[in-house]
Amino acid sequence: MAGSRVAHATLKGPSVVKELCIGMALALAAGSLWKMHHWNEQRKVRQFYDLLEKGEISVVVQEE
């Protein structure tokens, strides 16, 4: 029984480069979604003020 070798799984620590790449990818994805949300809100506000300036809408309640 001398010299028998058993393959053991070696545990490795976290890969710093892999963690940085995953973190950057997630940050870019989240940042892109956030920026798209703000562009959409900005478009809505700009459209509202354009309609208000043209007189197509009003913020004053009309009396009957």
TrEMBL record:
Cited InterPro entries: COX5C (IPR008432)
Entry keyword set: Membrane, Mitochondrion, Mitochondrion inner membrane, Transmembrane, Transmembrane helix
Localization per Swiss-Prot or TrEMBL: Mitochondrion inner membrane
Regions crossing the membrane: 16-34
One CC-aspect GO term: mitochondrial inner membrane
Similarity field: Belongs to the cytochrome c oxidase subunit 5C family.
Function: This protein is one of the nuclear-coded polypeptide chains of cytochrome c oxidase, the terminal oxidase in mitochondrial electron transport.
Protein name, per record: Cytochrome c oxidase subunit 5C
Organism encoding this protein: Quercus rubra
